[in-house]
Specification:
Its EC number is 3.2.1.-. The chain has 794 residues and is α/β, with parallel strands linked by helices. The protein is built from 22 helices and 26 strands.
Amino acid sequence: MLLRILPCVCLLLGACDRGIEVAPAPQAILADSPRSNTELAIYRDDQQSVTDRIADLIGRMTTEEKVAQITAVWADKHRMEDADYAFDPGKAAAVIPHGIGHLTRPSELSGSGEPGRSGDQEIAYVNAIQKWLVDSTRLGIPALVHEESLHGLAARDATSWGQPISVAATFNRDLTRRLYATAARQAASRGAHVVLTPVVDVARDPRWGRVEETLGEDPYLAAQIGLQAVLGFQGDDDTWNEGEVFATLKHMAGHGEPEGGNNIGPAHISERTLREVFLYPFRYIVTNGKVRNIMASYNEVNGIPSHANGWMLNDVLRGEWGYRGAVVSDYFAVKELHSRHAVAATLKEAAVRAITSGVDIELPDREAFPFLVEAVNQGELSEEVLNTAVGRILQQKFDRGLFENPFIEPGTALSNTPADDALVREAGTEAMILLKNDSVLPLADGLTIAVVGPNADKVLLGGYSDQPQHFITLRQGLEAYTAANGGSVVYSEGTRLTEPGSWYKDTVIAVRAEDDRARIQQALEDVADADVIILAVGGNELTSREAWAEGHLGDRPSLDLMGTQNELIDALAELGKPMIGLVFGGRPLNISNLIDKSDAVFQCFYLGQETGHSVVDVLFGRVNPSGKLPISIPRSAGHIPAYYNYKPTARRGYLFENVNALYPFGYGLSYTDFEIGIPQLAADQIQVDGTTTVSVKITNTGDRPGKEVVQLYIRDEYSTVTRPVKELKGFEKIYLAPGETKTVTFELGPEQLEYLNQNMEYAVEPGTFQIMIGNSSRTEDLRQVTLTVMGQAK
């Protein structure tokens, strides 16, 4: 049988050998009946190869039907709904007459953070739309359904754990995978096929309000934790299994160091830094994780917006790395080529530029890409480019089995369970980073505990959250613990960060200082008889968030604690009581005053729905703290950048100021002591293409069991291109009982030693390398040996 395969689709799917002639696709079949001439079509036969099915289907499509497959419907969903937000098939033909590629976030009702659909309601809604698409459109193509799942499925009654910055703080690969597999099962059970997660932007400016969404400042850590998130969503292979969804790596690229810390600000980054830092997690995960979607970033890199950057999306991503998945737009970003970046005079020009640069589908709504019909008809866009994008979207629909079964069994939606609670609670404990402990922790039972501060009794989920089944505040966790184990809790608000508001809604209302000072005085009275003060400060969902518009801001020029928090710290310190500081929020802050005046301090970021229980587990020693900083804490905004992997000439010093971070990447204390031995190389000399290992013994010399993160850093001592003073190249989190010793071994070879040389080629250069192992990036926390690399690669 002569295969009806379009040349561009054939090449896309890797099915054609060069030189083989391929028959042209037939003209699309036009008929009144939705099923005309398609019942025996190749694309409907699941015994045919996906390559052949895609080619056959594309060959039958009109230009309008093709463009429909690379667009999505979000706000326009409401034009297909009745007054109760139920799908109305009678209205659908006017909205999506040619079908649709993606259905955007059906978990929502009206959006804007309002309560959404229950799991069963979402199944009914998705099934109704899929039935209409299958039965009432000419070719019967089902839709892909996508949802947000930054830190758990963003849907009503789903499980919500800590923000990604907290997941990164665990340095725990297995835990990460278990978390994101939980979200995958819940999302798939409600009808989703794609999630717009994980974020692997490397965050190098803590003024940026989206730091909480990232995995921190280090490209290796982002790659390792990001890979586990992808594997949790998709599994280990390239096939779809029940309970899995297709992941989306985002945002490519350079998003995490915007000019001035302003969201979507220009990224002024050399190609070397772009490749070695910001593109590294994408390259690593594409190579090792078979991720199915990548989202382009809002920002420009060196003058080229990412949604119009063919070099990045076509030449590098697809050409150099061999990526074969889809590239999806960020929300409204194609339109912004016209309205914000001003590199396209019209929406049609924006659409043409985006699709030719490698963007395959416009999310979340149909704004610019519908103009591609006109562009093709007028010869402004090659139909082969359009067909290639359509093929990438159809690939996922066929791989997911949507043509055979687009429906979800009613009554099977998964919501949060006690097992999920336990997992989130565990993750919260491992994400808490102990920065200081002057022998006040762990706490004893039976104390009168004052819990004070703007974050002491607040729901703290961070961005891209919905409504989890419950949230345990710090106050609630302490009250539950003391009720069962003795002692009592006194609560006082102390100060406020902002007046009540929402991450989703624009308005942020500052608190009047005089009102806060009255609260401080009240707090001093409330805590007079307490044995210990637990002070919960930091930021909230309004003071650090995605600034998606000029009227919805979330970046700050200062890292200082907002409002009168430092006044509260000063006043409570005067009481002379033991004080434990807990810093919540989405990004590092200037906490020097809290460090100076507290007996113990934790960096918590956001810990998830079990926050109160997780904190109690650690404060009372039921769990030994083991979190490590995934991002350095600067001394002030003037100390930015503060990342640890700087170049040798970068940190000469400041007049009358310490140039180093207040607390560096990888730092975090424990209630026990770990002794790290001298690293041992299996061979201290290797060839440039050779490999060896380095091993180190770690002993728990304290009297408590606990986990420690053993970290491997490498420095190329002399190189033809300057290298950072140290770079993370390995880590392992291990559990040790008191007195127990374990050996940790790391591989050393091209993957750990190579870098971009003068010719912008990855290579290992001969010379000496410092191999450093310890429990933080601080030089005093590391022990080192020297590896010599000789000769030339064979």
